[in-house]
Design goal:
279 residues, alpha/beta, five-stranded mixed sheet, three-stranded parallel sheet, 11 helices, 45% helix, globular
Amino acid sequence: MKNVLKWPSFVLVLILSLVLAGCSTGEESTNSSGGGDGENAAAKGTIEQIRERGKLIAGVKYDTKLFGLKDPASGEVEGFDIDIAKALAKQILGDETKVELKEVTSKTRIPMLQNGDIDIIIATMTITDERKEQVDFSDVYFEAGQSLLVKNDSAITGLESLGGVKVLAVKGSTSAQNIREKAPDAEVLEFDNYQDAFTALKAGKGEALTTDNIILIGMQQTDNNYKLVGGNFTSEPYGMAIRKGDTAFVEEVNSLLKSMKDSGEYDTLHEKWLGSKPE
């Protein structure tokens, strides 16, 4: 009699276990098949996000004369890179004013792109194999070369003069890495941005400042007590950086560059900011 009474209870427990197991399996299947709104948003291409938002968010320099420099009086950011950002906004949205400029430095620009804080980096960024592992690049839009900026009365003439010399550079730049390789006996001091590095040079904290020649020319234009020496000892091809895998946006940016060069707009901007048409 006792066994007969236990039997229905056993059956009931078994049935409940099967039902619960079935419910659990169903929930896991639902969660694993198709993401939520956050995942769908992350899966959208950059162009689609720009159009939905109604503006392009470009990471640019604020301290680099000729390419991206913020006027402290007006608050406006101007330069070669800035005008390219405006041209990209016009191509995608039909209006060059629909662009938000966010300040980046050599150190912060890739993390800001990867975090989604900006859509694109247009900030005197050299294309390198190391960086290609983190971002995708557009075609080259400017060719620069690393050089040295020193006082007019300096005895430094080039790399061969840097033994034991304090050389100033910017954190996260290819220039800091290059100078350590090409002048291993120099003492390299790194700063957060070009403005800080140039201020340090003028304060005597170093005897030379190194970065791309066109950036140094911009500094020289603000203070003619300095000169470039040593020629260009590296090749620095600039590209616009885009989130890894966004092929459609890379193609859009390359299309812009081609149309600007075909129409002569690129030559006009080059002459406007850099003093001459490209060779």
